[in-house]
Amino acid sequence: DAKKNSVLLGEGFETLAGFDGDLTAESEAASLYVLTHVHLVKFLLEEGCKKMAADAKGNEDFETVAKMLVDIIGGASFDLACVLKLINEFQGVLHINVLRMLRSPKKSYWIAAGGGLNAVLGTAIFRGLRQLKGYSNRQWGHLHPTTFPNKFTTALKMSPGTGFDLPSLPTGGDTNTPCQRKIKSLDDLSASSSNISLRFVADMSDLRHGCSIITPVGQCAVLGSPFYGQDVEKWYKGEMRKVNWVEEDVRAAAKFSMLFNGKTIPTRKADCGCMIS
């Protein structure tokens, strides 16, 4: 086992040494880089909290504290329903602190508690590669997909990615790249925290011809519409759709229309007061 572990660790070092730093969706080295970062943080918290427990002579439950810190420091939302916020304000700060500790390891309580820089890095790389080898698809985009969950899918207890969910898409980047693609937490690497869902560009000098828009749910966000989810691929590629700005252009392009009479109370289907043509 020791020999196998040594070989695995050597493979991990070799992979990271050859990593060009580009977190493309197709890169397996990018996956190992992020997983190493994840396990580095988790290991530092584990060992640091163990030392705290020893110093406190077992009077505190620091194992629970370590698990809680993984969520908080990793940026997980304080809102468990993820209705108000998908992430917390610690997102984006973690990486800076990790770099600071790695640059001055002798000044870091956490690295000292983990056995020193070599021990910490070795453990993180080993655990990261071991986790990576457990995936059938090891590309970063597979571990870091953009997802489009629909509340109806959850409410009907369907599996994520099925039911009313739009197809997930492999995505590059991460929390610390200029092309912002935040991971949701240290235990959820999906790009579900900072993707720009709607893009709108306007030429104020020519609104009729100079406006474009895109949203992954398409021209209509109503379930059952033939236009629901139609723009996922366009959105993913960074493409846009022209906006029909004036009424005559809107009417000429319209496939369906809905009219409200503003009088009938919609208590029954027959009284809905609208007509779709």
Written description of the protein model:
It is a single chain. Helix content is 40%, strand content 9%. The termini are far apart. It is mainly alpha-helical. It contains ten helices and seven strands. A hairpin with an 8-residue loop joins strand 3 (199-202) and strand 4. Strands 3-4-5 form a three-stranded antiparallel β-sheet, with no helix packed on it. A two-stranded antiparallel sheet has the order 1-2. Strands 6-7 form a two-stranded antiparallel ribbon. Helix 2 (28-55) runs antiparallel to helix 3 (62-74) and helix 2 (28-55) packs across helix 6 (117-132). The model is unreliable at 268-277 (pLDDT under 50).
Question: In short, what is this structure?
Answer:
The protein has ten helices and seven strands.
Quick tags:
elongated, 10 helices, three-stranded antiparallel beta sheet, mainly alpha
Span between termini: 70 Å
Instruction: Give, in order, the helices and strands.
Output: HHHHHHHEHEEEHEHEE
What percent strand? Answer: 5-15%
Structural class: mainly alpha
Largest sheet: 3 strands, antiparallel
**Radius of gyration from the CA trace?**
25 Å
Q: Extract low-pLDDT stretches.
A: 268-277
Helical percentage: 25-40%
Q: Round the mean pLDDT to the nearest integer and report it.
A: 83
Oligomer: single chain
Number of helices: 10
Give the overall silhouette: elongated
Say how many strands there are: 7
Strand order of the largest sheet: 3-4-5
